[in-house]
Design brief:
mainly beta, single chain, outer membrane lipoprotein receptor (LolB), chain A, 13-stranded antiparallel beta sheet
Length: 253
């Protein structure tokens, strides 16, 4: 069960990686909390058969919200989660809250039969499930879309799929995220990150715009390992962006 809980915590961290990666950007001012059912968002960058990998990456960034996405100061997601162990059809249900904030800070809390909390205050990780390694959230995930023009980042082509385009963003240290986007809208429908000999796959569905930023209200995450595939299915109920968060929540006593 510890392995399952660890896998789930990694899933949440990758889902919220945008704010961690954007923590050095300036922030837009206050917004609020919204339930599911806001207006769908769309890309402002056209995608054509001749679009280069960089064009696709820019289209994906525009679909996420462009400057509003780049300037996120905080993001809070709350909702329900179902967790599956390898080969199991029976889920472990729960409630979740993720808080991501500038300064490379995040907090995850899950209420379930196996509750756990973890946090990172910008310097160290504390957790109710003991120590474990995490991918560097400033280098992988959706947030790397905000770094396309930074020195050392390369964008390369990947094989396209029907009605979908694909590309890879690689950072200066070799950290890579593979993206699959909708060929019409530019929305990210899937991204993949290698970690510790396994592979994280995050898939987005029911994408809605909240305060100009694209938010997936359904998220399917899998962690493929030599021992099988761990699966977590999230249903986001409420979203809060750019609201103040206290420093104390990012340390677990």
């Amino acid at each position: 069960m510890r392995k399952i809980v660890t896998s789930l915590s990694l899933a949440f961290c990758l889902i919220g990686s945008a704010v961690v990666a954007n923590s050095q950007d300036s922030a837009a001012k206050a917004n609020g909390t919204a339930p599911a059912g806001t207006t769908p968002a769309g890309s402002t960058v056209a995608i054509t058969p001749a679009s280069t990998p960089m064009d696709l990456a820019r289209a994906a960034l525009a679909a996420q919200g462009g400057d509003k996405f780049k300037n996120l100061k905080s993001l809070v997601l709350r909702g329900d989660v179902d967790l599956y162990a390898p080969g199991s059809a029976q889920s472990v249900p729960g409630k979740f809250e993720i808080v991501q904030a500038s300064g490379d800070r995040y907090r995850l809390e899950v209420a379930s039969v196996f509750p756990f909390t973890m946090a990172f205050n910008g310097e160290r990780t504390t957790s109710s499930v003991g120590m474990f390694s995490l991918p560097d959230l400033s280098k992988v995930g959706l947030g790397v879309l905000t770094k396309l023009d930074q020195t050392g980042y390369t964008i390369t082509a990947l094989p396209d799929k029907k009605k979908q385009r694909a590309f890879r963003v690689t950072g200066p240290d070799g950290s890579a995220t593979d993206f699959v986007i909708d060929a019409l809208t530019g929305r990210v429908v899937k991204y993949t990150v290698p970690f510790n000999g396994g592979t994280f796959i995050v898939e987005h569905d029911n994408l809605k715009e909240f305060e100009g930023v694209l938010v997936p209200y359904k998220i399917a995450q899998s962690f493929e390992t030599s021992k099988g595939t761990f699966i977590a299915e999230f249903k986001v109920k409420t979203v809060t962006v750019n609201q103040p968060v206290g420093d104390d929540i990012f340390v677990i006593q």
